[in-house]
Each structure stands twice: as C-alpha cells, then as structure tokens.
Amino acid sequence: MNIRHTKSLASLLLGMAALLNAGQSIAQEQANVFLFGQELEVCSSDMDRYCSPAKKQTGFDESAKLGPIFQVTDEAITRLSDFNWTEQPELRAQVIAMLQSLKPQIEASQLSEREFVRLIRRSTFTHQDKTIKGRDVWSGLFEFERNNLFDLLEQKQATRAGKRLKTQVDLMATNNESALLAYQAFYERADQVAGKKRKPRVALLTGVSRDPYQKVDYYTGLFEQLGFEVIWLPLDGAMQTALSVKEYDAEACSKLAQFQIQKLGSFRRNILYPDLFKLQEAACRKDESILDSIKRADAIYIADGSNLLASHALNKPTGEASPELLKIKEMLGNKQLIIAVEGQSINSLASRNTILSGEGAQVMIEPSNVYLSANEVCNLGVDCISTEAERELNYLSEGVLGLFPYGLIDTQLSSLARQTRLLKVAYDTQTQMSFGLDRKTALAISIEESDKGDSVTFDVIGSGGFWIFDIQDGKLSSNMATGEYISHYFTHQDKVVYRNASVAPDFAPWKIATRLNSTNPTVTSSQPFGRYNYFKFSQMLCNTGASSAIAIGQLQEINYTLQLVKSASSAARQGVILLDGDKESRCSFSGVTNQILIN
C-alpha cells in the first residue's frame, strides 16, 4: 500500500517562508473560488484546540482576548429586566430569580459559556413559593432567547485602561495541517492576482453571523500572518438596513445598534466591541465606502455563518442584490478577484435552492419546507436563523450569492450524514448534480466558461473528502425508494474535472488501484444513513475492492436496502496519508451506482 508522507507544517514553520513554500503543488494557478469546510481553524487565544502542546502550556500574553466570558452582576440582571430579550414573561421572571439566587455563589466569577450553562442546569431555586430546577428553565428557552441571554450577560474584555482586548493568532504553533495547506493555497492564488508590486489584499466579510464583530480579530491575525493586507467589510443585515433607511432618514447610521437587535437578533455589540462599532458607523456615513474597499481587494473571504444572514448582508432589504454584491460578481467575472467561502456559508454559493437545515434519514420521507427567499423566512421574526438549526428539511428556492450554477452544494456530509438532505432536495427540485464537502476539507475551484459547456476543476485539500452525486433523471418515491443515482468521493490531492454532467477524476499519484475482490459484503444496520454510516459503508466497498455491497436498514417501519454497485466505468484508488499528525487510509472512488430498494 502506498504511503504519502506529508510533513507536519507545524514542525517546519521556522519562518513564514516555510509555510508559504510548502505544498505548492496544491495551489491552482487558475482557481477563482475556494471552499473551506468546517474545522479548518488555526491556533488562537480564544480557541486553543489546534494549538501545539507547547503553546497550550505557555499560552498567549495578557493582552490576548479569550473566548466569551459571562458574569452575573447587578447590572447584568437589570439588563434582563430592561431589554426585550424573550417573548415569555414568566420565563423572564424565572431566569432573573435563578440568577439572583446564583449570584452570591459566583460573585465576581468569570465563566465560559460551557461553565455558565452547566451552572444553570445544575441549579435549584425558589420563585413564587415554588421550587424550580434550572434545567427546566434552560430547556424552556428557545435558541434565540438563549443567544440573547448570553449577549446580555457577556462581559467586555479590556485592559485596566479600558482598551478592548483582541483575539491573537499563532500560525507557527498551529497543529492543523489541513488548515495551513488550505490557507496557503488561497494566499498563493491571491498573490498571483495582486501581482509582484504589493501584498495581496483580502476583504473580510464577517456579517453573516449574528455577532458580526466576534471573529474580526481572529481572521485579521490569521491573514496578516499569511502575508495579506486585510480590509474588513462592515457589511451585515443591520448595515444594509441603515444604508437603505439613510436615503430618507439622515440619522439612520446612528440607529445601527437598534438595527442589530432587529435584523441580527444581537444585543450590546457596540458595548463589547466599541472600536469596530465606530468603524461600521463611519462606513455607514461615508457614501460608497464599502464599495471602494471591494474595488481595492484581490480576494473576498466570507466567514462561516448563517445563509439567511448572508442574504441580508449582501442584498438590500427589498431582496434586490446590493451594489456590493453586484461589484463582487462583476470583478469575479473580469478575473480581478477571487472568492473564498467558509463553513455553512458555502451553501449560499448555489445559484438556486439554498439548503438551510435538515438532519437524519427521515428527511427522505417527510415533507420539505420550501421558502421563496430569506425575507420570507425572516418574516417569522428576529429568531428566523433558528430555522437553520431545525431537524426538518428547510431550503430556499433561490440562491444567495448565485456564483455556483452547477448544482446543489452542502457541507459536513460524512460527519452529519447530510447525504440524505442533499439527495432529497435534488429529487424535489430535479437538480441533477449535487456537491458536498466534509469537515477539515477545502476545495480550490477553477472555472473556465465556454459556450460548449463550462469546465469546472476541483482540487481537494485536507484530511476529509469531497462528494459528488448525480441523480440522473431519477425519482424519489414517498416510501424512500429511489431510482439509481451515482456517487463519487475524492480525497486529498485528487483533481476532478466536471463538464456537461460528466465527472473525470485524476487521482493523486500516491494512491493505487484497489484489488478486485469477489466477495460482496452485506451490512445489517438499523440506519445505513446514520452519522458516518453511509461514509463507512462506501469506504468499505472502496477498500475491499468488492463489486457490490448492500446495507439493510429500517426507517419509521419502512424496511429498505441500500445497494452499491460498481460498473465497468467505476474507479477506486487507495493510499495512506500522514496528515494532521495521523496516519490514515484514504480511498477515493468514482462512478458507484446507488439505489434504495424497499423490502
């Protein structure tokens, strides 16, 4: 079995030159779109998960901001009475009573989010002569109410002089090689766009999150250490509202904090991040300030966040494309700009049918909720982004960015078994091709437009993988049965060319063909589409070299068989890679026929 040795960049980073010169074969000279899956983070002061052991021991200096901290103070309790943060008056009273009972126990304690929730869930208190458990209060709060509660209790992290602490990043101490390789590829391509006379400029959009300021320092530090000049685009749903209202209200920009509550469901950001809030206010008052920033950029980076908030950030309140979005599309079309999109925001790239939510195999047999636009979803209220956390399948019948016209797109496929929701939307909308990205995986995408059919090249980076599904002209019955659909799965350093519904793989040279095996394995599972099960089942077929495999499962009293079959046009390549400190087998395959049969 071939073994691909990818040296740990973290151990080689004696200087930034080592980071930028390693793995150059991955960066594509013509790539104009980059996708960054979840868990491609680097070492930072507010999240040390990907910091080296030595860095975890030494830590960051005292000027570094940690993750959000919460404190139960008299002022915080007063805010819970003054702000309209919940639609449940009795629960509001219970939360206040609970925190008042907890305050003497944790006087002056600064708690992380996890510690704060644990404290609440373990508490017991008396309210109106009744003994109430904290876990019952917590379970009674909706997701948006919990977020509002966190906002009102979060403490500003500042020096004794009152200056806000900032998140610090340390690429040299990062233990996430997948992330380093992905960001390296993005930097190198942006550097080509910029030319040799100056640093590449990246324009950063963080307004796709309900807290548009929280990650600004993190990304600024990350990109500056890579070698970028960083421009922050203070664009979000609140800002778009202010810009629209400014046409008839000269004081609109002074109402930005109010618009943040109304449009983002976000409280007190002006208190916790006063410097960034002032920058956003100033940009609001200066005509075309953000447009001018976009014109100066060589790359746009859209952070992980909500697809609904991405729509509000990049469209006018009426739903029309904003001048900023139109300028981004124009510059992309003219090859003056590249774009990268991270995490769940990747779904917003599709030209139509943006997937919002849906978990589990049951989405295959339950009705989907289809919305015409993000505005229709958010007519439900400021908690509209909670739609994206529902188990029910929800999707928009339109795109947000509209930059990927080749099919549906989704993320975290293998880990969250999202193949089913991707397939359901494909069948619902009769969209032939679907594309899905795993965690810790990035794509460098090169698009060559042609009247005879665009040629799209995907280069896979990282320790996860990249799925492609082709439902052909198949149908999905109400009992989950499907026509035949084709699956493909590609891993680190594979290259895939897609053109006119045809998928042509170019597997990494360190992977070898799997040996053919006459055995056809059968797997009995209560849920072949459970978390990681579909991935493991497909990998079993790939690794064993079998010509077919079946998995037997049950869903809501429906007994079904998932059948995988290789054909003469199928291909599979296998190898072992040393990446992110682990030695793991990777099996890529193309052209496997799938079918769900009802027993």
Main features:
599 residues, alpha/beta, ten-stranded mixed beta sheet, nine-stranded mixed beta sheet, 21 helices, disordered N terminus
Fold topology:
Blueprint: E1 3-5, H1 9-12, H2 16-21, E2 33-36, H3 53-58, H4 74-82, H5 89-102, H6 113-122, E3 124-127, E4 130-133, H7 134-140, H8 143-153, H9 177-194, E5 201-205, H10 216-226, E6 229-233, H11 237-245, H12 256-264, H13 269-272, H14 274-285, H15 289-296, E7 299-302, H16 307-314, H17 323-333, E8 338-342, E9 354-357, E10 369-371, H18 374-378, E11 394-396, E12 408-411, H19 413-416, H20 419-429, E13 433-437, E14 441-448, E15 455-462, E16 466-470, E17 485-490, E18 495-499, E19 502-506, E20 512-513, E21 522-524, H21 533-544, E22 548-555, E23 558-579, E24 582-598
Parallel strand pairs: 1-23, 2-8, 5-6, 5-7, 7-8, 10-11, 12-13, 21-22
Antiparallel strand pairs: 2-14, 3-4, 9-11, 13-16, 14-15, 15-18, 16-17, 17-24, 18-19, 20-23, 22-23, 23-24
Give the class from helix and strand content and strand pairing. Answer: alpha/beta
Which value, in Å, is the CA radius of gyration?
25 Å
Main beta sheet, described?
10 strands, mixed
Overall 3D shape: globular
User: What low-confidence regions span 5 or more consecutive residues with pLDDT below 50?
Assistant: 1-27
Can you count the helices?
21
* Count of extended strands: 24
Mean pLDDT: 88
| Cα end-to-end separation | 38 Å
Q: Approximately what portion of the residues adopt beta-strand conformation?
A: 15-25%
Helix fraction, binned, reads: 25-40%
